[in-house]
Design the sequence.
């Protein structure tokens, strides 16, 4: 029986753009597990299986409901220990948490400031009202103001990527010669932007861009086939 | 036979302050290997065993000379596989490289801007001339100018530590329940500052400060016993 994943979608059901859901999507593929995804929108809080925290990803595996991307990754690793490892061991899991915290503190806030208005453009009217209200409250200004000077902020964002860039100059994946969950965490951030914005985060000759291509190629092009901006 | 470590020292032979040498020192203790350290100064390029790149750490193990802290860590892990692991496996080694790059790009440049004049105060006259010339060339200004506004830069430095802080809020060490090489890399940066400056990098209630205390306690207080500023 395949696993069900509740996956954040835009107005078009195929446009999947949650960085957290992409972690889970890639982790399921890494574990060679079949998945059926259910498109889910911000305002459909009550349609998620219980328990949940009103957010995705949520998975249902043989009747068991697991929510929160980190909890899901831990669940998959312990429930399917014979499948390819997401962490391999405790050191792998612990160091992946540092990568996660770096991603959520450095990458996500940077990216949201570039693409928040593009997200708004790609979601349905009910979600748009919710999204604009909640995000403008968080930023303290209109979404149009948030993204206004994004070109000027791009050099600083790219400079913040130096620890990632220097790592990927020397190895094909964050986790070494093959990808693991740490790669999916960072990739989720880039795939989020790719799905809803044509604002290019990376210079074409950036080793991070070359890694992103390798990530898009994984699992038969799973992430590449997903609708990107304009796709 | 014990391993010999050429270790950067101040005017006082006991004051060891290289962040890179501290990585090696902690790694040797982690591997339960005996070590004899040789105090070495910046201007003693020609007293190092061959081959080397004019920098420490350099170790000599049963006649074999190994230099560069990362190369030494790899050497120790493969030469002493039955001793406690520094990386555990390829994922551990690969993710440790990200921690290393983050440390060298975020932590080291931040710290040198706080303590560069304190380093100058703690080294001998020959080293002082070399150090001032080479560092003033790098910074493009007198060392006194580099550190002048350090208080004002402290909040930004502490904010840069959020990925580390958030990780150490949830686990005792970067590598999980017990320390590994990733911890020694980050600790080396703090121990560098501690050895030559009374400028406090961390607020007392910072989880990073609590972790630093745990690191100072390791191996019978190895790092704590080493002379700190004024010690």
Sequence:
């Amino acid at each position: 029986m395949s696993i069900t994943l509740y996956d954040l979608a835009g107005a078009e059901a195929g446009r999947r753009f949650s960085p957290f859901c992409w972690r889970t999507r890639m982790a399921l593929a890494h574990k060679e597990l079949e998945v059926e995804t259910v498109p889910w929108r911000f305002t459909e809080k009550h349609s998620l299986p219980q328990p949940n925290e009103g957010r995705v990803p949520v998975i249902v595996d043989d009747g068991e409901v697991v929510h929160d991307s980190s909890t899901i990754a831990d669940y998959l690793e312990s429930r399917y220990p014979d499948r390819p490892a997401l962490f391999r061991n405790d050191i792998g899991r612990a160091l992946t948490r540092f990568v996660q915290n770096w991603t959520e503190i450095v990458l996500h806030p940077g990216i949201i400031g570039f693409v928040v208005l593009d997200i708004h453009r790609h979601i349905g009217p009910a979600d748009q009202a919710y999204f604009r209200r909640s995000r403008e409250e968080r930023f303290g200004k209109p979404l149009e103001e948030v993204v206004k000077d994004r070109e000027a902020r791009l050099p600083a964002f790219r400079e913040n990527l130096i620890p990632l860039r220097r790592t990927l100059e020397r190895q094909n994946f964050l986790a070494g010669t093959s990808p693991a969950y740490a790669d999916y965490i960072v990739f989720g951030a880039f795939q989020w932007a790719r799905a809803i914005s044509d604002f290019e985060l990376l210079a074409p000759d950036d080793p991070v861009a070359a890694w992103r291509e390798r990530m898009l190629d994984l699992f038969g092009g799973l992430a590449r086939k997903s609708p990107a901006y304009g796709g």
Notes: Chain A is about 55% helix and 10% strand.
